[in-house]
């Protein structure tokens, strides 16, 4: 049966009326803060305790917005007669967010987990120079980094946990064996 | 002295209604349209859900410079907004909202004639604006307005004539005195034709080719700025009030309601007018703009025959019941 003439018009009216009765999903941003998931690309936090000044992040950065200065210090030998070790000490770590394009490559390449995404995004400035966040400011952003989302229920165990568990089991087994021999 | 006071009071009330109702409808349109499109609409002006948005808009318009283009016909250009707006004020004067003597600005014996003739003048404002602006877009808009006026004035008049025939009078309160509930199904075709033709005459979407902003900037109003532009917008919303009020009075029985007709007649009138105004907004949100030729086709091949059929039906029924 052919549709009644004008049924399309009525359908259109029904659609708009139904939309009107539904609750609007608009978020009133400055009044209500958005609920952003972990790893949202807001700002980059630096966990400087983990940084070894390997410079990977600065070299991989596509627009060269990471500035790192460091110097070497010698650490006295751990064992008597051993060789003195040298170690990198971080002097300056700065990210120019006026240049940053939020690609996240620095965070991906960091082998020591020293860089993290934080969902904070309200750091606009009236002076472009203020957008270069120095080491202390980058460290402060670390407090705003949320815990990563939980793994999927059937996901593989994370590698570091698996490794830690294996070591713990081995140790426990090694401790248990001599005890059995004594008794 | 008492007469003068009475007249002054009536004029004042009509004037206040004329200034507030279009704003209420405009604000309703803001919010209803927003929610129909899944938005919130104005939320800040005035604090509570943006209730003062149109007041803020008015302040903004008043601050703007009033520009008259160099090539424009200066006096006609400046007069046009008044010509567009004032007729609706005059029409509002003649619309009865309650059964008593006091519930109408001025009883006019030939009410339908007066109302339709004066509403036609309102369109002249757009024509004047279109011609006087010395702008091609404005001229196109003005010509489209003229074409639209020609096409839609006819079905509007014919359906109004049908109601006048049914009531045996052309006075608006007279029509309402003669109203019976079964007029509703009897005149329903006429009501729809009248309402649609009225929408077209107001250049409301989906009949807004004369101002089609994506094709001809803003039609006849392209060159207007500041308060004069605001007056044109106000005329559009005043037109909605007038059209909805007229449709209520002519076809929906005005102050007659299923219950509580004594003393509450004006509530019924306002309620029906408000529902019609909501429908005007609803149609605007739902339907895309008709093309210019589709508009003419709708009028000449559908609305005019329908209104003629309505007149025939009215005549036949009238003869039979006598």
TrEMBL record, chain A:
Residues noted as binding [4Fe-4S] cluster 1 in the record, renumbered to the chain: 51, 54, 57, 110
Assembly, per entry: NDH-1 is composed of 14 different subunits. Subunits NuoA, H, J, K, L, M, N constitute the membrane sector of the complex.
Pfam families membership: Fer4 (PF00037)
Protein name: NADH-quinone oxidoreductase subunit I
Residue span(s) of domain 4Fe-4S ferredoxin-type: 42-71, 91-120
Cofactor binding description: Binds 2 [4Fe-4S] clusters per subunit.
Principal subcellular localisation of the protein: membrane
Gene that specifies this protein: nuoI
Catalytic activity: a quinone + NADH + 5 H(+)(in) = a quinol + NAD(+) + 4 H(+)(out)
Keyword Iron part of the UniProt annotation: yes
Membrane topology, record value: Peripheral membrane protein
Automatic annotation (TrEMBL), chain B:
Topology class, membrane: Multi-pass membrane protein
EC number: 7.1.1.-
GO MF, one example: NADH dehydrogenase (quinone) (non-electrogenic) activity
Parts of the chain that traverse the membrane: 7-26, 79-98, 110-133, 154-176, 182-200, 229-253, 265-286, 298-321
Keywords, alphabetical: Cell membrane, Membrane, NAD, Oxidoreductase, Quinone, Translocase, Transmembrane, Transmembrane helix, Ubiquinone
Catalytic activity: a quinone + NADH + 5 H(+)(in) = a quinol + NAD(+) + 4 H(+)(out)
Subcellular location: Cell membrane; Membrane
InterPro entries: NADH_UbQ_OxRdtase_su1/FPO
Pfam families: NADHdh
Broad class of the protein's primary localization: membrane
Family: Belongs to the complex I subunit 1 family.
Purpose: NDH-1 shuttles electrons from NADH, via FMN and iron-sulfur (Fe-S) centers, to quinones in the respiratory chain. The immediate electron acceptor for the enzyme in this species is believed to be ubiquinone. Couples the redox reaction to proton translocation (for every two electrons transferred, four hydrogen ions are translocated across the cytoplasmic membrane), and thus conserves the redox energy in a proton gradient. This subunit may bind ubiquinone.
Subunit annotation: NDH-1 is composed of 14 different subunits. Subunits NuoA, H, J, K, L, M, N constitute the membrane sector of the complex.
Protein name: NADH-quinone oxidoreductase subunit H
UniProt gene name: nuoH
């Amino acid at each position: 049966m052919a549709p009644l003439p004008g049924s399309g018009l009525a359908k259109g009216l029904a659609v708009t009326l139904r939309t009107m009765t539904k609750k609007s999903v608009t978020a009133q941003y400055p009044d209500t803060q958005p609920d952003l998931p972990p790893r949202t690309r807001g700002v980059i936090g630096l966990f400087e305790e983990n940084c070894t000044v390997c410079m990977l992040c600065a070299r991989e950065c596509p627009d060269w917005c990471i500035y790192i200065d460091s110097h070497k210090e010698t650490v006295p030998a751990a064992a008597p007669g051993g060789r003195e070790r040298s170690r990198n000490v971080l002097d300056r770590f700065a990210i120019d967010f006026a240049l940053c394009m939020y690609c996240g490559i620095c965070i991906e390449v960091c082998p020591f987990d020293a860089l993290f995404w934080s969902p904070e995004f309200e750091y606009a400035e009236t002076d472009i120079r203020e957008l270069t966040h120095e080491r202390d400011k980058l460290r402060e952003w670390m407090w705003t980094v949320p815990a990563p989302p939980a793994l999927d229920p059937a996901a593989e165990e994370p590698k570091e946990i698996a490794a830690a568990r294996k070591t713990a089991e081995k140790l426990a087994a090694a401790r248990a064996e001599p005890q059995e021999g004594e008794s | 002295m008492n007469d003068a006071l009475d007249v002054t009071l009536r004029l004042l009330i009509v004037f206040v209604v004329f200034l507030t109702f279009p704003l209420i409808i405009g604000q309703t349109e803001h919010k209803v349209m927003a929610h129909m499109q899944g938005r919130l609409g104005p939320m800040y002006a005035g604090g509570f859900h943006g209730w003062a948005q149109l007041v803020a808009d008015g302040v903004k318009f008043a601050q703007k410079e009033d520009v008259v283009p160099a090539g424009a016909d200066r006096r006609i250009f400046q007069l046009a907004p008044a010509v567009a707006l004032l007729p609706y004020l005059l029409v509002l004067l003649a619309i009865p909202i309650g059964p008593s003597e006091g519930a109408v600005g001025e009883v006019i014996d030939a009410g339908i004639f007066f109302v339709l003739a004066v509403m036609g003048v309102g369109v002249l404002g757009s024509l004047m604006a279109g011609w006087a602006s010395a702008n091609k877009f404005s001229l196109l808009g003005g010509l489209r307005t003229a074409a639209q006026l020609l096409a839609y004035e006819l079905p509007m008049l014919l359906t109004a004539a049908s109601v006048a025939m049914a009531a045996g009078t052309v006075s608006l309160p007279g029509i309402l005195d003669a109203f019976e509930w079964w007029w509703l199904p009897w005149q329903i075709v006429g009501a729809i034709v009248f309402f649609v033709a009225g929408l077209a005459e107001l250049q409301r979407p989906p009949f807004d080719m004369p101002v089609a902003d994506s094709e001809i900037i803003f039609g006849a109003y392209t060159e207007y700025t500041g308060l004069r532009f605001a007056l044109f917008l106000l005329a559009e919303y005043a037109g909605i009030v007038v059209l909805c009020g007229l449709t209520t009075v002519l076809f929906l029985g005005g102050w007659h309601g299923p219950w509580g007709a004594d003393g509450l007649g004006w509530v019924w009138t306002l309620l029906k007018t408000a529902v019609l105004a909501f429908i005007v907004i609803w149609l605007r949100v739902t339907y895309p703009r008709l093309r210019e030729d589709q508009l003419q086709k709708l009028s000449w091949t559908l609305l005019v025959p329908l209104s003629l059929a309505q007149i025939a039906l009215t005549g036949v029924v009238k003869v039979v019941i006598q």
